[in-house]
Amino acid sequence: MPEVSTLSRENNDFVREVHMTIKKISQDIANEFQFNTVISKYREFTNVVYDYLNAKTEFNEEDKMVFSYAVITFLKLIAPVLPHMAEEIYEGLGGKDSVHKLEWPKYEEALAKTSKITLVAQINGKVKDKIEVDAESSKEELEKVALGSAKIQELTAGKQIVKVIVVPGKLVNIVVK
Question: Are 19 and 112 within 8 A, CB to CB?
Fold first, then answer.
């Protein structure tokens, strides 16, 4: 498992997707036997993998490590539904023994959390800017970032700010006259 605190943004996002996939597939198989949604999640994750690969022109060591982790995890996740295919792919990758003897991937809540969010900055309820901020930012920090945005400063120049409404993790609405 890669150490996410040192990963680049795109690799951190990719690991987050892996863990969200582990959670959903594990729940659907173990608790609800929702195999139709399991198949759907396989397809969604495949699209995430394609997006990750298409965004890269060359792979550094970190990229290779994260991608290997994702592929092996995905093989473990498809093994209950596609046993022969998973076994064949695992063997083709040089795996020893059987993919079915590997430990089931463990979902880690901390790795599934996003480190950044897109904060929507509104003026009188209308979206005026979108700003990337740290997901753990406080209300005060979100307000400061929104009010510090060049677009927001330009649009509020010469106007009286009546109220600032902050919805943590989502938006900042600035009411002006």
Answer: yes
Cβ within 8 Å of residue 124, ≥6 positions away: 173, 174, 175, 176
d(C-alpha 157, C-alpha 177), whole Å: 11
**DSSP string over 81-129:** TSHHHHHHHHHHTT--S-GGGSPPPPP-HHHHS-SEEEEEEEETTEEEE
* Contact present, 167 and 122 (Cβ < 8 Å): no
Note the pLDDT tens digit of each residue in 128-146.
999 988 888 899 999 999 9
Q: Which residue has the tokens 């046993």?
A: 83
Distance between CA atoms of residues 69 and 63, nearest Å = 10
pLDDT at residue 110 above 70?
yes
